[in-house]
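Run log, item B.
One chain of 151 residues. Sequence copied directly from the ordering sheet:
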Amino acid sequence: MVNLNLPAYEYQLREWEGVTQIFCGLRKKWLVLTPEEWVRQHFVALLVGTYAYPKSLLKIEGGLSVYKTVKRSDLVMYDRDGLPFLLVECKAPEVKITTPVLEQALRYNHVIKAPYVALSNGMEHFVFQLDPAGKLSRLTDLPAFGKKDTD
């Protein structure tokens, strides 16, 4: 896997029946190591290790229904009241973060309703805030955990 523009962390890899796997500490299981999973696991480590987001409030690959199709959000961080706080859409490093990627995340967030949305391919990272009227503003960093958009 390529080096990412995310902090390094202590990950576990193994070979199982000819497939490289990475251990997901949140789900407590081994997963196939794909480029997107590599980014997702690094982003989880960033949220928990650098930004002190509580891992107990982080959900990986949660199912949701978007326009009558079942989709999976990459990461959703909940606040202490159990409300969505941050939706994160991860892509493989070779996938450019473009308007269609943002639109995908916003479609997911139409259902999830988090005030913050982040996009990452492990190399580039974009963070947005949605105000109650739906106006999108780009931020320079991830929000501090628990910071409401009205604070």
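Observations after the first pass:
- Strands lie at 13-16, 19-24, 29-32, 58-66, 69-78, 84-90, 116-120, 125-130, 136-139.
- The chain has two helices and nine strands.
Flagged for discussion on Thursday.
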